[in-house]
Amino acid sequence: MKNNSDFKSYKKEIMGAAYNERLRLALSRAVKSFRANVKNALKKYPHTEKLADEVLEIKKKAIPQMEKLAQQAVAVIEENNGKGYIARTAEEALGIISDLVGTKKLIVKGKSMTSEEIGLREHLEEAGNEVYETDLGEFIIQKMGSRPMHILSPAIHVPREDVARLFSKIMGQEIAPDAEIADMVAAAREYLRDKYFRADIGISGANVVAAETGTLFIIENEGNIRLATSAPPVHIALVGMEKLVPSLSDAFKVSEVTWRYANYTIPSYVSMVSGPSKTGDIEKVTTYGAHGPREFHVIFLDGGRTRLAKYPLLRQALYCLRCGGCLYECPVFAVTAGHFGDKYFTGIGAVWAAIVNQDLEKAASLAYTCLTCGRCRQRCPVKIDVPEMIIELRKLLAEGEKE
Amino acid sequence: MGSDLVPSGLKYLADNVITKQNILGVSKEQGARWARKLALPPAAETVFFAGCGYQFSPQLEVLMSLARGTDKSVIGSELPMRFARFQKKLGLNLPGIYSNALSSGAAVEVKPLEAAVKVLRKLGIQPGYLAENEPCCGATLYHAGLQSKFAENARKAYKTLKKAGVRQIIGVVPYCIHALKTLFPLFIDGYDIEVKHFLEIVAEKISLLKLRYPHPVRVTYHDPCQMVRYMNLVEEPRRILRSIEGVNLVEPEWTHGEWATCCGGGGGFETVFPELSEVLAVNRVNELLETKPNIIVTHCPGCIMQLKDGLRKLKVKNVEVLDLMEIVAAAMET
After folding, report:
1. Res. A173 pLDDT band, cuts 50 70 90
2. B272-298 exposure pattern, b = at least 16 Cβ within 10 A, e = fewer
3. What is the pLDDT, as a whole number, of residue B73?
4. What is the dihedral of CA B300, B306, B308, B311, to 10 degrees?
5. 20 to 30 A Cα–Cα from A111, which one of A65, A268, A345, B54?
């Protein structure tokens, strides 16, 4: 390795994680319940596997034309009185959002890996805003000053006893280590309740976007995103360009497959948002900002995605629905959680580090941490061949790129 | 050679493959020693491909225990691998250490290969064996990312095989067989050698064998990644085990077949992360122990090493790790 100290400190980090009993306890509980849940979900809705094949075809077609789809979505969002943007880089996206937000604002946020990717929360906090993560897992992470360790369950590495201790500290009410999980959930609800209604801005991501209507599909169970995207007067959404698919019916398919493999048999909420809140009830005059947000802004982030789309094998990383299923099957992740990762985790994280973030040292550390055992591929609804990508990536790292 | 981004553990193995045609960089004669008393013909249309893994099991164990010892110390990562790379410069005699490991009774480790040949003969197949002329499949180069070196090695290996008149290969090491069967054709035009895995042949002809294990045993099977997720050999080992009288096959609840957990030794991983790899071995062994087996059966020299290490680490003494080839050979003799 060129930068041996980087590799050494990475190795130290993952070994530290591997010997962390708390982490291992939390992960082993999670893996067990995930497998049982997905098994039941697929048994109950057996059409999902076929639908997943269709989704793979949709992604194969959508990824090479991300740019076109983004432009189409921006145009239709603007026709619908929202604002659409295409940000080439993370900095550009941060700039657009900073300009919209300004300073001294109260912001409620839904969980979004894309906003983690560009460090949005930290950026807004540094600009003097008060930002609340409202997803329970993300809220825990924010309050712990940690970083997400799983794409869907960011606090997957924190056992309940540790949550009780944390909540007791920040909420000024004692929660016993052996308290019911329901009590912890209730405490978070109470703590966040008024923030939604006092907030100036709500920020979310999206799981899928239908380009033809500019509709964001947002899957969740807690209801925090519903509140965060409808109570404040402004809704800003940050979405990776790889989330775009051509039609509404494509988006429905991608959504269903995503939630099923994410072990939400039936999610409580799927929000579809296509524009600002409006009414024509008085004299048929369209007026914006009825009960929901008056302003609706969608930022599509390229940030290296169109570059990645040009690699025939590695582009598979963009098919990822972020269901998180592969992570539960990775033997290394089972002991290290997100420490085996960068912006994204495990093998896909390695590809992301190399091509999207162009951090070759990090990419090499991750690429050679992959066992290439292939169990993730077994789980993946869109059959992303991680071992194949990793071998290809190692080739690029070892031999350089050949034109 | 290669880029600075390739971890030194893998570079060491790759250097050995390129210069000495085996992952350890020892003499080919040392590797071929196991077959001496079997008197296998040195040339034949169908040859038995022994590969590195089983031949060098004892040496690899020495290397890994060195690596794991150092990996835990403060000195840092991959040191033994660097030692190994610069063994001559440093005057460290690794081949000597390996030979000692061999003479200290560890030679029993090549039993799986002997067992495989016996089984094949019983099935009426008389394979040849190229011994010290057997080329290295170079799979390690491929996994390290050194693809042009792999391609170069593959073309050389193909030439060697053709020159020896080989038309069919029967092999046992999963990594080698996957390379010879699936990867070689990607880099060699008109590749015309038929490659079969030992277990395919045995499973096909299992009815010809009357198999009874010397005593009743509870057996669990660990699927090597390359076997199950690269070559799709899921049913074959199970069909074989089920046809042995006295063997009671018990499987972990979820992690078997295509869902089997990697032993922690995949793709040279153990040379880059010796210590983490041991943690993973312990995890896998724990999953397998839930079935309360007398024997953990598998079919990969890397997996065997890892699983043994996991058992040792857990201080479990009454469970054995055996290769499927050994089980079949033992069941044939009664």
Report:
1. confident
2. bbbbbbbbbbbbbbebbbebebbbbbb
3. 52
4. -140
5. A65
Please answer whether residues B234 and B246 qualify as being in contact, where contact means their C-beta atoms are separated by less than 8 angstroms.
Answer: no
In angstroms, rounded to a whole number, what is the distance separating the alpha carbons of residues B248 and B179?
Answer: 33
User: pTM of this prediction?
Assistant: 0.91
Superfamily of domain A66-303: NagB/RpiA/CoA transferase-like (3.40.50.10420)
CA B163/CA B193 separation, integer angstroms: 12
Whether residue A325 contacts residue A262, with contact meaning beta carbons closer than 8 Å, is answered with yes
Q: Is A364 on the interface with B (CB under 8 A)?
A: yes
Hey, which residues does A208 pair with through a beta bridge?
Answer: A217
- Whether the CB-CB separation of B153 and B160 falls below 8 Å is answered with no
pLDDT band for position A26 (50/70/90)?
Answer: confident
Rounded CA-CA distance B286/B195 in Å is: 34
For chain B, what are the domain ranges? 8-59+105-202, 208-332
User: CATH for A4-44+310-399, among 3.90.930, 3.30.1390, 1.10.510, 1.10.1060?
Assistant: 1.10.1060
Residues B282-300 pLDDT 10s: 999 999 999 999 999 999 9
- Residues A228, A106 contacting (CB under 8 angstroms): no
Quick one: pLDDT at residue A30?
A: 86
CA distance A159 to chain B (A): 20
* CA nearest to A362 within chain B: B5
Domain range annotation of chain A: 4-44+310-399, 66-303
Taking contacts as CB-CB distances below 8 angstroms, the residues of chain A near B267 are 370-372
pLDDT at B90 over 50: no
Q: Which of A169, A147, A168 is nearest to A158 (CA)?
A: A147
- State pLDDT tens for residues B13-29: 888 889 888 887 778 88
Question: Closest-CA residue in chain A for B257?
Answer: A375
**Residues in chain A within 8 Å Cβ distance of B6:** 1, 364, 368, 394, 397-398
pLDDT the model gives residue B4: 81
A383 touches chain B (CB under 8 A): no
- Measured between its terminal Cα atoms, the distance across chain A in Å is 24
The conformation of residue A214, written as its DSSP 8-state character, comes to T
Q: What residue type is A7 in one-letter code?
A: F
Q: Which residues of A58-92 are buried (b: 16+ CB within 10 A; e: fewer)?
A: bbeebbeebbebbebbbebbeebebbbbbbeebeb
Q: What confidence score (pLDDT) does residue B78 get?
A: 52
pLDDT category of residue B98 using cuts at 50, 70 and 90: low
Q: CB neighbours (10 Å) of residue A300?
A: 31
Burial of B42 (0-12, 13-18, 19+ CB in 10 A): middle
d(CA B20, CA B136): 9
> Cβ(A253)–Cβ(A54) under 8 Å?
yes
Q: pLDDT (tens digit, 9 = 90+) per residue, A32-89? A: 889 999 999 999 999 999 999 999 999 999 999 999 999 999 999 999 999 999 999 9
Which runs of consecutive H residues, i.e. helices, occur in chain B? 8-20, 28-32, 52-55, 57-72, 79-85, 87-90, 94-103, 111-122, 139-144, 147-163, 174-178, 184-187, 198-204, 225, 235-242, 269-272, 274-289, 301-314, 324-332
Chain A residues within an 8 Å CB radius of B10:
368
Task: Give the burial class of B19: count Cβ atoms within 10 A of its Cβ; 0-12 exposed, 13-18 middle, 19 or more buried.
Answer: exposed
Interface confidence (ipTM) of the complex: 0.91
